[in-house]
Design the sequence.
C-alpha cells in the first residue's frame, strides 16, 4: 500500500505507539482487500455498531482505555447503535436479573464512548441517518461506519461511500481520519453484479423482497428494475422508510452493502444501466417467488403453536412517518376488531431523536392509548437474553428474525395479530 508522507509518519510512530498500531491495523485491513492507498474521511460524523456493555467484552474495554490514555480519540463525533435496555419494555424478574448480569458494563462503556467522541447523550440508534438524529452524510462523502443496515442505506439511498466495516475498525478509521480505498469506496466496486426484475402484481413487502435479493446476490451489488412502479420515483418519506427496511433485509439475509434502484436511487438516476456489469445474471421476482421465500423461514420456537407473548416492530428503528402511519393503522384495526388496546404486548422502537419529535405530534398520545410501548431499545439485544430466546416473540423485521428466535410475519399479519389477538 502506498501511503502519504503524513500517513507513513503516523505508521512510523510520530504520534506514538498507539496511533502507529491503529494505522498498521488499517493498512493490514486494506491490504487484505487489495487496497492500494488510503482516502480521507470526508463526512462530519461517524457511527459505531458496538453499543452494548456486555460483561465478556473485557478486551474491548481495555483497548478503549488504552486509546483514551494515549488521547487517541475520534476526529469525528459519532453515533452508536441502540442501547440494549429499557425499563419500559416488558420483562420478567428473572429476565431483569440476567440483563443486569449480561450488560454489567453498560455505564462504564457509555462513559468510554462519551470520552471517545459520542455525538450526544441520546445518539444511540441503528438508523443514524434519519434527519432527527443529525447524522446524514451527503452524496459522495467517505464514511467510516459499521452497522450493516446503516451502511447499505448510506451507500444506496444517500449515495455516500462506505464499506461494510466491522466494529472497532470503524472507530480506528475515525481516529486516524482515513480509511483504505477498496470495494464500495471505488467506482468499480459500486457497479452492479446482478439485474433484479420485479414482476409482482402488488407492492412487494419490503422485508421479504430485501430478504429474497440478499439471499440471492449475497455480498454483490444488485440493480433493481420495476420497484419504482410501487414506491415511486422520488425519495420521499414513504420511499425512504420502505428502503430502510428493504436494505436492512438485504444486508442481514445476505451481505449487501449497496443496491441501485432504477429511476430512484442517486447513481441509478444519473447513470442508469451503465452501472450494470457485462453479462450480469438476472433474478426475476414475482409474487410466487416472494411467497416461496417467506415460507422458507424456519421457526425455532419449542412450541410452534405457542401464543405470542411479545411483538417487536422497528428493527431498524422506525421513522417518524412510520410511527404516524402505524398509529393510524393500529387505531383502525382496533376499531374493526372491537378492542381498545392491543391484545399482545407490542413495542415500537425508534431513535431517541425521532421519539422526541413524535412526542410533539398528536399521534404520540393516540399511540399510547392503543397500549403500544414506544422505546429506544435494540430488539436484538433484548432477544440475546437466554430467557428471551425461549419466549414466543413475533416481528415483521427480517433482521430480527435472522439473528434471533423471533418469528417472522408480514406487516398485515402482525397488525391482525396484535389488534385481534391469537386464538
Sequence:
Amino acid at each position: 500500500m502506498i501511503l502519504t508522507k503524513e500517513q507513513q509518519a503516523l505508521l512510523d510512530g510520530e504520534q506514538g505507539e498507539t496511533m502507529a498500531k491503529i494505522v498498521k491495523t488499517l493498512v493490514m485491513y486494506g491490504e487484505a482487500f487489495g487496497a492500494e492507498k488510503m482516502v480521507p474521511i470526508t463526512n462530519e460524523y461517524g457511527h459505531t455498531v458496538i453499543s452494548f456493555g456486555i460483561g465478556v467484552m473485557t478486551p474491548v474495554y481495555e483497548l478503549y482505555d488504552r486509546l483514551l490514555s494515549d488521547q487517541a480519540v475520534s476526529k469525528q463525533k459519532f453515533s452508536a447503535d441502540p442501547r440494549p435496555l429499557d425499563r419500559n419494555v416488558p420483562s420478567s424478574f428473572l429476565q431483569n436479573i440476567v440483563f443486569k448480569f449480561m450488560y454489567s458494563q453498560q455505564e462504564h462503556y457509555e462513559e468510554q464512548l462519551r470520552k471517545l467522541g459520542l455525538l450526544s447523550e441520546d445518539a444511540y440508534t441503528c438508523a443514524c441517518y434519519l434527519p432527527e438524529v443529525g447524522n446524514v452524510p451527503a452524496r459522495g462523502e467517505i464514511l467510516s461506519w459499521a452497522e450493516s443496515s446503516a451502511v447499505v442505506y448510506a451507500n444506496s439511498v444517500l449515495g455516500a461511500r462506505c464499506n461494510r466495516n466491522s466494529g472497532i475498525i470503524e472507530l480506528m478509521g475515525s481516529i486516524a481520519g482515513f480509511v483504505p480505498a477498496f470495494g464500495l469506496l471505488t467506482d468499480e466496486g459500486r457497479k452492479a453484479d446482478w439485474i433484479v426484475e420485479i414482476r409482482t402484481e402488488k407492492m412487494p413487502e419490503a422485508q421479504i423482497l430485501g430478504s429474497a435479493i440478499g439471499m440471492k446476490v449475497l455480498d454483490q451489488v444488485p440493480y433493481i428494475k420495476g420497484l419504482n412502479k410501487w414506491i415511486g420515483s422520488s425519495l420521499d418519506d414513504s420511499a425512504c422508510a420502505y428502503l430502510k427496511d428493504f436494505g436492512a433485509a438485504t444486508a442481514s439475509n445476505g451481505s449487501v452493502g449497496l443496491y441501485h434502484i432504477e429511476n430512484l436511487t442517486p447513481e441509478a438516476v444519473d447513470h442508469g444501466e451503465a452501472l450494470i456489469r457485462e453479462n450480469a445474471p438476472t433474478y426475476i421476482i414475482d409474487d410466487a417467488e416472494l411467497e416461496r421465500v417467506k415460507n422458507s423461514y424456519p421457526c425455532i420456537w419449542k412450541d410452534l403453536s405457542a401464543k405470542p407473548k411479545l411483538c417487536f416492530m422497528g428493527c431498524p428503528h422506525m421513522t417518524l412517518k412510520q410511527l404516524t402511519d402505524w398509529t393510524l393503522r393500529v387505531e383502525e384495526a382496533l376499531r374493526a376488531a372491537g378492542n381498545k388496546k392491543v391484545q399482545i404486548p407490542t413495542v415500537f422502537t425508534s431513535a431517541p431523536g425521532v421519539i422526541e419529535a413524535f412526542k410533539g405530534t398528536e399521534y404520540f398520545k393516540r399511540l399510547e392509548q392503543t397500549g403500544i410501548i414506544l422505546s429506544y431499545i435494540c430488539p436484538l439485544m433484548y432477544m440475546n437474553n437466554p430467557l428471551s430466546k425461549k419466549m414466543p416473540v413475533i416481528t415483521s423485521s427480517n433482521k430480527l428474525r435472522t439473528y434471533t428466535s423471533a418469528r417472522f410475519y408480514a406487516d398485515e399479519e402482525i397488525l391482525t395479530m396484535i389488534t385481534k389477538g391469537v386464538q
The chain has a mean pLDDT of 96. The chain has 19 helices and 13 strands. Residues 190-295 form one domain. The first helix runs from residue 5 to 11.
